[in-house]
Amino acid sequence: MDGKGEPHGLVGFNRAQSLAFSATRALIAEAKVSTTPSGFSEGPEGEEPNPRAQFTLSARMLHAFSLGTLLGLPGSRRYADHATRTLRRVIDEHLKELPDPSAVDEEENTDSEAYKAKFAAETSTTSR
Asked: Would you say residue 127 has pLDDT above 70?
């Protein structure tokens, strides 16, 4: 208990909650000017970031605005939803660039003389 009859943890929690509230409110003000249709930019006059930077920035924004939503800050939910849509889009675009996992390489003919010679050569170099 502190001198005012409150548990120490509660006083610390109220201060931490107040700081989080202020920081999230400042972030919402910044997001209002840095929100673009494709995600977030680096400030009001910032350029569209590359996909990796967009992913990182959107993940940070989603974290902050999720906290703002939990704290009851008006506008937080809208920006959290925007960050979620951006993350989904960036991830989907990245996945489309990856090779098709169902594509199978041609099976190597292990009965051929060339395969046996290659195997023998690799074995002899690694066994030294």
From this structure: no
Q: What's the CA angle centered on 63, arms 60 and 67, to 5 degrees?
A: 140
Determine whether 114 is exposed, middle or buried from the number of CB atoms within 10 Å of its CB (0-12, 13-18, 19+). exposed
Backbone angles phi, psi at 36, to 5 degrees: -120, 165
Question: pTM of this prediction?
Answer: 0.60
What distance in Å separates the CA atoms of residue 60 and residue 39, rounded to the nearest whole number? 12
pLDDT tens digits, one per residue of 74-87 = 888 999 999 999 99
DSSP 98: S
What DSSP designation does 50 have? P
Q: Which amino acid is at 62?
A: L
* Residues 6 or more apart whose Cβ sits within 8 Å of residue 11: 2, 4
Location of structure tokens 């169902």: 102
For residues 37-65, give the mean pLDDT: 81
